[in-house]
Specification:
- The structure is a homodimer of 288-residue chains.
- Chain A has 288 residues and is α/β, with parallel strands linked by helices.
- Helix content of chain A is 37%, strand content 21%.
- Chain A is built from nine helices and ten strands.
- The longest helix of chain A has 19 residues.
- Chains A and B meet through helix 1, strand 5, helix 6 and helix 7 of A and helix 1, strand 5, helix 6 and helix 7 of B.
- Strand 5 of chain A pairs antiparallel with strand 5 of chain B.
């Protein structure tokens, strides 16, 4: 396809386009986004670009994954800039449905997971992973991808999507894209846009805490509570930083780990002056 | 394809077969069943046979739609006879997975509807429609049908599937097949196999009750409670018949209707000596 990016706004047109691509024997890669694209999204697009013949990105701020007191209305949006960025990554099709097109009047069907959401972000955002699983199921039925790319920055989301794909027998391969960081180490996020310069050091404390923990685990410390205490201290020294959770857990089940004998996920969520930031790293004993 | 029926037992092989059929530009019709086939299933297969190029039937007794005190273990099974019956309807592919193939060890993903299950069968079978919606979503991802055929005898199930397809943007057309009855009027069901000759008159009372109501609505009676009372009397005269529900309701939302001004669904479930039977009819004012 190439330079002429195609924008599709209805479900029916996207399904017909996907059918045509598949009938031509071509493979579809898909990067779902909520727009306000940053370097993290673009890295997922580059992975998708390599993985298939036709690259589809979606831009849709999904109301179903926001709780009543969350930032659905104020979530940053810049559609024209997003389109330009998609063009820069040679996206073939941008799927940009409107809300009524995806959630009609009598809407009532949700994809729910029993266990993975009962950890980390799921505890403070009870509707989040149902909203994510539901919209990804919908988008997969519309875009019909052979492969889809999700960022490791949203580690729990990646696990939820992989579990849903396996459990519901979706015929789509899930590829994980590494977390992209700004020069100072802050994980890329559309919500970084909410931060002022003053709040930057507190925002960077998530990355500081991860590095403190990484070094301790690499250095042979196996007591998770000791690591957690040191990591928390790296954050709480900033009065504007409020820890939502800071967890050392199994990278597959997300169950807490007390004694570290193998790879361990450290995942954390911190509110910095009201902006909720998340970050994570898989820590390896004996590896810097 | 034709006389040589193909049996597929794994998800991966069925998905590959579906991809090949679709790449050839052919359309797939799908009839999901729990086996122990009867004339009702065969009529759905004839509808499917007409609707597409390749006809796929599945045989799978879905554990997720049975409650803990229901008849999953004793549900009748006769695989060889089922295969012969599929052959008789020129089914091209029988998909017959085993339980481990569809519900693995850490299984945890379910498709749930918010409102339609809170009526009729959903009240006494709380997991039933989640189990049905989940397995149909799974089977649709495996068989990749253009059209799928469901019987009107399971009217609420048909509504649930249609709602799920619409809400989750499945690109599959749902066709309803009319209820097939035995010569005496009993709606075809695999569970009819549980009935003894002695229990037959009580089993037929469901059809009697529907006909009583049909005539009253056709005759201009609009008071649902009067109709319900007469219909119930047609059943309760058999001491071995125990009504689970008998409802006059909106054929789209399943909300109760008190005053009949248009088409009304009469749906009922009755236990006859322990065997749970269901039946329904859409009644039309002014039409016999």
């Amino acid at each position: 396809m190439g330079d002429l990016i195609k924008v599709i706004e209805t479900t029916e047109q996207m399904q017909q386009a996907a059918d045509r691509i598949r009938q031509d024997g071509k493979r579809i890669a898909f990067v779902p986004t909520m727009g306000f694209l940053h370097a993290g999204h673009l890295s997922l697009m580059r992975i998708g670009r390599q993985a298939a013949d036709v690259l589809v990105a979606s831009i849709f701020v999904n109301p179903a994954q926001f709780g009543p007191n969350e930032d659905f209305e104020t979530y940053p949006r810049d559609y024209d800039r997003d389109l330009d960025l998609c063009r820069s990554q040679k996206v073939d099709i941008v799927f940009a449905p409107d809300r009524e097109n995806l959630y009609g009047r009598a809407y009532q069907t949700y994809v729910r997971l029993d266990r993975l959401p009962d950890h980390l972000c799921g505890l403070s955002r009870p509707v989040f992973f149902t909203g994510v699983a539901t919209v990804v199921a919908k988008l997969f039925h519309i875009v019909k991808p052979h492969v889809a790319v999700f960022g490791q920055k949203d580690f729990q989301q990646l696990l939820v999507i992989r579990q849903m794909v396996r459990d519901l027998n979706f015929d789509t391969e899930i590829i994980a894209g590494p977390t992209v960081r700004e020069a100072d180490g802050l994980a890329m996020s559309s919500r970084n846009n909410y931060l002022t310069e003053d709040q930057r050091p507190a925002a960077l404390s998530l990355y500081d805490a991860l590095n403190v923990a990484r070094k301790m685990v690499a250095g042979g410390i196996t007591d998770a509570s000791r690591i957690r205490a040191r990591a928390e201290a790296a954050i709480t020294k900033y009065p504007e930083a409020e820890i939502d959770y800071l967890s050392l857990c199994d990278p597959e089940t997300l169950n807490d780990i007390d004694h570290i004998t193998g790879p361990v996920l450290m995942a954390l969520a911190v509110k910095v002056a009201g902006t909720r930031l998340i970050d994570n790293m898989v820590l390896q004993p004996g590896h810097e």
